[in-house]
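Quick one, T. Sequence first:
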Amino acid sequence: MNETADTKPTHCVLEHRMFALFQDPVFRRADTDGTPVMAVRLGDRDAAMPLRSLQREFGIGDSTHDGTVLAAIAEALDFVPILRLGDPLPPEILTGDASWEPGPAHQRLALIRLQMQLVAWLHGGDGAEPIVLDAAALAGLEDDPVLRQQIQEAFQRAAESLGLPSKDAVIEQMESLAFELAFIESLRERLLERVRQMARRLERLSRGFRGDTEQRATLDRLRHLSGEALRQISHRFEQQDAQAGEVMAALRHLESHRHFIRANRDWLYRSHMAWEPLLADWDKAGEALNEPLRALLARTYQFLAPRFMPVTEWLKHRKTNRKPGAGPRMEW
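Structure tokens:
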């Protein structure tokens, strides 16, 4: 497909003859700073060229076909790890849909959260307080016959309040909303809970460490940084839960709530993609403070510090820990 510059590109199709000179170029983010790059093989070595540098070097204007496609590729790399020439761009930047799917368990969990909100509204609440029960507690409620009856009553009352023809129309809207929220439930498990587990392990390591002062100070910084990371990520989920907690408002304004959920979904998914390599290593890490764990702690610090350390402190840290021509270091 050959899109023009004034239409939204749907595929990674570039026209400049320069792109045809390279064998199987790959578009991805740089390992160092996340800059969108084109990675190619040049003889016996790999090279990664920032997309903006490519545009300047070859005179590719932002409003040209290739400029538009390169901008879409940069945006797409928030949602997919790599793209090759000819690949379709992810639906997040085309239609707002997701390029991945939550599991059935996450859809059930999202639906029962909404049903509990609706029951709370039925019993005189305004539906504004989010249901904060954890996944296990919510799953156990599905088999409660009294609750099932209350849910049916809530569907009927909601249909009357919303001016819908029947409770089936409410059920259809609830299922549609639950599908969108299932992505949030999936990311709660894949991102939030794993960051929480990592933060707890760093807390235990910091509290239990009996080594020298410098190592203790580094563990304390890691504990602080992981706590700040957890606070920021938790806040995003709390905002989403509070919005979803207003279940009747969500049903009255389904499309606006859908847009809000998707914006949060995409932010959390981008965060998950950035965190995933580190969290995967923490999932496999042992408890002993041995060399592999020390190396993981160093990587964790390098990941957390530029993201969650106050700017003035981070600049001071870089100045203190950098020699001319050297990268950042971490002493153990």
